[in-house]
Amino acid sequence: MSARMRNAAWLLLVAGLAVAATLAWRQWTRAPIIEAEKLWYTRQFLAVLPEQSYDNQPLDTPLPLPGEQPARSRITAAYRATLAMKPTAIVLVSQVQGYAGPIRLVIAISAEGRLIGTQVIEQQESPGLGGRISDPQVNWLGQFANRRLDDRWALRRDQGDFDQLAGATVTSRAVIAAQQEALAYFDQHRTLLLGGPAHE
């Protein structure tokens, strides 16, 4: 065998071993990566629920979405949190059109119909303006905690109960509408979402 053929064979062998090692590494790390992604997803979605308020894994069992969609927003998923097998909250994933693009929210509502909390999981709003809806230092979403459907779901400038995010009127109105419609959706389908009889 010539030197050229031996070199080619060695290169082929090294390349084959490198490909095999890469594939083995990818297979070996795939499960931990998937598990890490699932954990991140769970933390993002369940950050709206107080600790110790549930003992199940809500995201493992998505609920069927009953009824028609709200007028301005869209409910894309629903989950039930339980404690000792008793429903404590419904977590709704809502999407609404903001100023620069869709805003995705996770909205937790107590079994009694009060808004527990809202978390932004995706948004494309202008940095320094509407983009501050997800800024924990601004905590604009904090003003909605413990509110009910019969509150005045509008900005103060529109005769409502809520402060505007400075410089972001469109974003503020969109997020307020999404939360109000989530509460209305829960109220309309309360029995089904909480796991009662199928009739409403």
What does this structure look like?
- This protein is of the alpha+beta class and about 200 residues long.
- It has two domains: about 1-45; about 60-195.
- The protein is about 35% helix and about 20% strand.
- It contains three helices and four strands; from the N terminus they run αββββαα.
- The chain has a four-stranded antiparallel beta sheet with strand order 1-2-3-4.
- Strand 2 (about 85-95) and strand 3 form a beta hairpin.
- The termini are far apart.
- The mean pLDDT is about 85.
Protein structure class: alpha+beta
Number of strands: 4
What's the pLDDT, averaged over the residues?
A: 87
For the largest beta-sheet, the strand count, sense and barrel status come to: 4 strands, antiparallel
Strand order of the largest sheet: 1-2-3-4
Shape: elongated
Give the % helix: 25-40%
Number of helices: 3
Domain tally? 2
Low-confidence stretches: none
Radius of gyration: 24 Å
Following the backbone from N to C, one meets helices and strands in this order, namely HEEEEHH
